[in-house]
Structures are given as structure tokens and as C-alpha cells.
Description:
Layout lengths: L8 E2 L2 E2 L4 E2 L2 E5 L6 H19 L4 E6 L3 H16 L3 E7 L2 H10 L4 E5 L8 E7 L8 H11 L15 E3 L1 H13 L9 E5 L9 H7 L3 E5 L18 H9 L4 E5 L6 E4 L5 E2 L1 H14 L7 E5 L4 H9 L3 E5 L3 H11 L3 E3 L5 E3 L8 H15 L3 H4 L8 E7 L3 H6 L1 H14 L1 E7 L5 E8 L3 H22 L1
Parallel strand pairs: 5-6, 5-7, 6-9, 10-11, 10-12, 15-16, 15-17
Antiparallel strand pairs: 1-2, 3-4, 4-8, 7-8, 12-13, 13-14, 17-18, 19-21, 20-21
Amino acid sequence: xxxxxxxxxxxxxxxxxxxxxxxxxxxxxxxxxxxxxxxxxxxxxxxxxxxxxxxxxxxxxxxxxxxxxxxxxxxxxxxxxxxxxxxxxxxxxxxxxxxxxxxxxxxxxxxxxxxxxxxxxxxxxxxxxxxxxxxxxxxxxxxxxxxxxxxxxxxxxxxxxxxxxxxxxxxxxxxxxxxxxxxxxxxxxxxxxxxxxxxxxxxxxxxxxxxxxxxxxxxxxxxxxxxxxxxxxxxxxxxxxxxxxxxxxxxxxxxxxxxxxxxxxxxxxxxxxxxxxxxxxxxxxxxxxxxxxxxxxxxxxxxxxxxxxxxxxxxxxxxxxxxxxxxxxxxxxxxxxxxxxxxxxxxxxxxxxxxxxxxxxxxxxxxxxxxxxxxxxxxxxxxxxxxxxxxxxxxxxxxxxxxxxxxxxxxxxxxxxxxxxxxxxxxxxxxxxxxxxxxxxxxxxxxxxxxxxxxxxxxxx
Length: 461
């Protein structure tokens, strides 16, 4: 089954020349340069100034990677040159930018981050006034600006200014502290901050709620973000939880919109496991409106079965938290997410927030008077194998007939499904084999053909 894909149109939301499913992302000063950031800032300042017929107000955050400072200053220069006032949150999380944009009346927000990617990549995520990812109509206008269309420079008293907006981040912290219904006093909790945005916020939140906090991945130096730590490399957190006999642990990604949990035994609870725990917790308390959860095509089929046994419906959508949120709005469901750890609690937010997820899981354990291992017992994932392959021809590989035949053979072998999809944020094709047996062998069959196809396409180009 080839799904998701990297077509020019996904779920009614187009992918542009520069912007993908999660903003404009690329290798810093190669595919994404300081000039790009400047021109994006120029557009935002001019466009939102004209729309409101007043000086535009833009809030900007960044993660800890080395190039984030360069992009922050370049984008700010462009926006102020177009007449906007730019409010700087400095190092913060993507969800905090969404929260501040929505609650403080900003015209738009910008987060400079490449999420879980290595430090040499970076990205620019645009957020609308509602705290949601910017719509395609505006994105297409941004791309026109990047490709040469210009707007007038502001002059005299119309030139914009920058504002150090630490107050916005403090309001986000207050929001997080307001969520749990119980004190965390007496809990021993491990946090892996991925040497990214969470290092500036997460410990302060759990400290204030009374937990004893044990940190790892909290010494960012500009080049170690996501390096052998965080939600994509869970071994460090597992060791911390086991060695220190902690009650639980949480690992975030570079911009802290993802969370992967570790129970008191050191067992990993991914996004699907988190959704199972939280769906049950909310359902028992009558807080799961419509008794449903939004999943993606990459969610384990075992999760559907586990939720069905609890009387909880689920609907699937394409991969990407923007698609999850769009489906949640459509169905009215209040909970949705991805295996990667993007989990959305629509009552509180418009995007995945790793810190909100960690707080809700901790609350669920305390209120249920059960450790996380106990809460996750009812979910039995089907065996699966996931392989990521770096390629230069994502779309062509998905459409190749030999690759499609390999997928069909692999599905017969594993007696289940094989999902082949292109990442919307990296030059990667992902192969997921899930079924009753032979998942590794099934994934390997497709992997071989994908690599052969990539070699052939490189030779032809």
C-alpha cells in the first residue's frame, strides 16, 4: 500500500516549491539561506501590515541550533524593513509560539526550527493568527516573494522595531502550570530535552508542580540538538529511568512538539501508546467528546483494535499533525496524534505539544493510581519494521512500477500491510511493514528495490 506520498497535492493542502508539510526546511545556507529568511520576513511585514491597514505584529521563536540565530536576525530584519514590529521569544518551543500568537493577538507567528532533524538543517514554520499552520493561499504568496516579487520598504516612522518578549513565554509557562489537576509532589521524573527547545522550559514546569526532575540532553551547544538523544534516540532516557529508579520519563524533539514516554520499567511508550492511555483516561471521565480519536496511516493497526475494545472509535488521516488537526476539527474529536509523538489535545491547543502530552500522561498515572506500565497494558501493537532510506528522487520512487510490485510481494509475505511514503520534511523514503509475520524480511524486499531504483534514477538524471 503506497500512501501519504509526496505529491503536489496532499489532502487538499498543496506542497509548494519551498514549503512542505511542516514549513520551509533544508540544509542551512544551502537549500535554506539567510536571504530566504530575509525575504520571508519582508513579505510577512508587508502583507500583514496591508491586511490590517496598520503596523503588523509578528512573534518569533527559535530552537537551539547554531543557524537559528542567523535566521532569526535575517527574518527580523526583513520584517522590520517592511514596517512590522517583531516580538522575540528567543529559544522556545513551537507550541509556545502557536499559543502566544493565538492568545496575544499577533498577526502571525514564526518558529525557526527543523524539529527532529540534525543541527545542520533548519526550517521556518509560519503560524496564522489562530495558532494554526499558515494556509496555502498565503504560503503561495510567500513563495512568489522568495522568487523575486518585492514589496516597498518602510521609511521614516513606519520602519518596524524589535521587542524582547519574554513575557509571552512566561504566559505560556503559566498555561502549562494550569493544566494538571493534581500535584506532582513525590514523583521522580526524567526529562530528555534533546539539547533543544525544551531545555529552557520543561524543568521549570515540572519543578513548579512538585516533581523531582532528572535531566539529560539539556546542554545545548548549537551542534548537538537531537544528537543521540531526544525522542528519536530513546536509549539515554531509558538508562536514566532505570539507573535512577524513576517513576517515568519523557523525551522531546528539537522544538518540543513531540513526546515519547518511558515507563518505570524502562519500556518505551510511543505516540500510539500515549494515545491509548490518554483516550482511556479521558473516556472514563466523560471528556472524550464523540468517543473518538484521530490516527494517521502510520499508526499501528493494533491500536484500532485496542480502542475498539474500549468502545472508542478511530479515524485515520494522512501523516502530519496539520492533517490530524484538520480531521479533528471535521469530526469534532478532541484527541489525535501520530506514532512519532505528535499528540494534540484539541481542548487546549491547535498543534502537538510535547510538554502538554507529558503533563497529561503524568496526570493520568496519578489520577488512575497506576504506573504507566499498567495503563498501557491493554494495547498490543502488531509486529512492524520501519526503515528510512535517504534518496534524491522521492516522488519518482513512489510511482515506480518495480517498487509498487515489490510492495505487493512484501504485503503477501508479512500477511499485513506495507506503507511506502516520502517524508514531507527530509529527503527520506519510509518503509513500514506491519503484519502477522516476516516484517523485517518484507521491509527488506522493498528496501532493495527502492535503493536499486534510486541508483538508476541518479544515473539517468
